[in-house]
Give the backbone structure.
Amino acid sequence: MRSSRSFPTLEDVAKAAGVSTATVSRCLNTPDRVIKPTREKVMKAVDALGYTPNFGARVMAAKRTFTIGAIIPTMENAIFARGLQAFQEELHRHGYTLLVSSTAYRPELEEEQIRALVARGADGLLLIGYDRDPALNAYLHQRAIPTLIAWAFKPEIPKPAIGFDNRAAMARLTREVLAQGHRRIGVISGIAKGNDRAAERLAGFAEALGATGLDLRDMPVIETPYGFENGENAMIRLMQTDARPTAVMCGNDVLAAGALRGARALGLAVPQDVSVTGFDDIELARIVTPPLTTVHVPHREMGTKAAIALIALVEGGDSLPPTDLGVSIKRRESLGPATPRDEQAG
Amino acid sequence: MRSSRSFPTLEDVAKAAGVSTATVSRCLNTPDRVIKPTREKVMKAVDALGYTPNFGARVMAAKRTFTIGAIIPTMENAIFARGLQAFQEELHRHGYTLLVSSTAYRPELEEEQIRALVARGADGLLLIGYDRDPALNAYLHQRAIPTLIAWAFKPEIPKPAIGFDNRAAMARLTREVLAQGHRRIGVISGIAKGNDRAAERLAGFAEALGATGLDLRDMPVIETPYGFENGENAMIRLMQTDARPTAVMCGNDVLAAGALRGARALGLAVPQDVSVTGFDDIELARIVTPPLTTVHVPHREMGTKAAIALIALVEGGDSLPPTDLGVSIKRRESLGPATPRDEQAG
DNA sequence: CTGAAAGCGCTTACAG
DNA sequence: CTGAAAGCGCTTACAG
C-alpha cells in the first residue's frame, strides 16, 4: 500500500542537512538565492534520502500544477494525434505535463471534460475550434483559466487562437478545382453542426463557387462523419446520380481516401473519370493511389506553437492575438482537368 | 491573474450552510454518511457559491490524484492513438484523468518521463512493453506506483500486463506465408533494440522458420524505424538483390504500406510478383491496394481493458496476472502463393 | 543569505 | 449523524 509507507519530506531533508525547510525549498526552486556551500549540503541530503517533492503539497502551496489540459475530438484522427504529440513534446521541454481528454466528436461532452480538467488543476487549456456554449465561456472566464483555441483561426474573434483559416483554405482549393474546368463539383463534408472547422470549409467552398457565378445549392453535398467507409459510401451515392460531378471535394483526407475506393468500386478512374481532393495532408494522402491533391496543414507546427503560446498565456497572464499559420495546396495526381460530360457518362 | 482572485473554499460553504467543514466534505465525498436535510442544505450552499474543490488541497489530504499516467512511444502511430483513446474514455468513465507523455521511440527518455508523471502525482502508470532498466523497475517498486504493462504479454514474467504474444502472433503469420509455398522470405522489421515488441516479432518469424527447417540467417532482414518511406526504401533494397524474396513480411502495417509502394515503383505486382504482409491491422491495412494480409490486434479492447485493470490495481492494490488478449490473422489480397523463381526473375 | 512561522484548503480518525 | 481539531508537506512573505 502506497499510503502506509511514507517518503522523506522536506523536513527530513532539512534536518539531515541541518538547515530550515525554507532553505531546502529554495535550493530546489530558486537555487541562486542560496550560497553554494549550503546548496551542496542540501543537495547531498536530497540525494542521500532519495527525496522527491510531494505533488499535492507543492500544488497547494504554489497554486500551480504545471499541468496543461487539452480537449480534442479524438486521438484516432491523425491530425490531432500529430498535433498533440508535438504539443506534448513542447510542453515537456518546458516542464509541463499534458492532461488529455477527448469528446469522441460529441460536443456536448466537452463541458464535462473541461470541468474535469479544471478540477484536476490544469493551469491552462487547449481547446479545438470556437464553437462553444456561452455559459462555458463564462465559466472559463470566471475561473480565469488561460485558454487557447487551436485548429481554427477567425481574425474577427479576439481570443487567443492558433490555427489557420479553414474557409480561406477551402476557397483556395476550390479555385484550383474550378481552374481545371470543373463546373459540377460534389462535396463530401464532415458533419458541420458543432464543428466549426467543417462548417467553415463548406463556407469556403460556397464562397469560391459564388465568385465564379456558381451556386452551392446546385451542387450535390453529402455530410457524413469523418471515416473511411463513410467517404466510400458517399462517393458511391454521388456517382450514381444522373448528373454526376466531375470532381468531388472531401472534408478531409480520410473521407477522400474512402472516395477513392468508392470510385474504384464503380470502375471509375481518378482523375480521368472523376477528380478527388482531400484536406489536411496527412501521411495517408501520399499513400493512396492516386496520391491526393489536398490542403497541407502544418499540424506539428501548430502543436508546437500552441504549447509555446499557451505557456506564455499561463505564465505571462496577458492575452495573445490570434495567429494564422497559413496553409498551402499540395498538388498531386487525384485532381485533373474536367472531362466533357458525355464522354465520361460512357 | 488567477491567484489574486480567490474562490470560495470549503469553509465558506460550511459557514453559509451552518455546518462544519467535515460535514461539507462528507456531502461531497461520501454523501450517504450525511442525512438528507443536512445534505440538501449543504448542496444549496455549494451551488449558491459556485464552489469547486481545490485540487491541490484535496490531493494533499487524500493522497490521491485520480490521475493515471501513460507513457507511449508516440501518439502518431495509429495503434497507440486508438488504444490510448479507448484507455482515456474508460478512465473518464471511472472519474480518472489521463496524463500522457511520449518518448518519440527513444527509450532512454522513458525514465525521465516516468519520473515526471510520478512527480505529478500519477496514481498509476501505463507502460508499453517489458524492456526497462532494472533500476527503473526498482524505483517504481520503491515508490509503490501501480504499473501495468500493455501491448505486450509474456506469460513467464509475473507482472501485471495486458496485451498479446507478439512472438506467437508473428510465428502464426509466418506459417501462413510458408503454407503458400514461400521459402525465401524477406523481413522489414522495426528497430528491435529497445523495443521488445519488434524483437519478439522477429523471434516469432525465426521460430516458425526453424520449425520448417529454414534458417533466419538465410533470409534478408532489414531493420528500420517504423515509417512509410522507410518501408518503401527497404522494399526497393530487398528486391534489387540477386536472390529476391517471393514474400516480404513487415513489422507493422505502415512499413507494409511503404513496401507496397516500393513494389509498385519497381513495377512488381503484389501478390503476383511478391507477397507482402503487415502487422496491427490499422485502418490503413484496408485502405491500401491491395489490402494487406496482417495480424489483427484489438487495440481499442486493449486500451479499455488496460484502464479497467489499472484502476483495479490502483484501488485494490493487489497484483493481477498477465492477460493475453489474443490476435487473429486477417487474410486479404497482399499475400498469395509463391511464384517459381525463374518466372518472376523475368 | 537564512530561519521561524503562518498559511494553503482539504480529509479523516476520534469523540460524542 | 456531526463537529473540533490535527495533519497532510510544501511555499513564501517577513524579519534579521
User: Anything to note?
Assistant: Chain B has 14 helices and twelve strands.
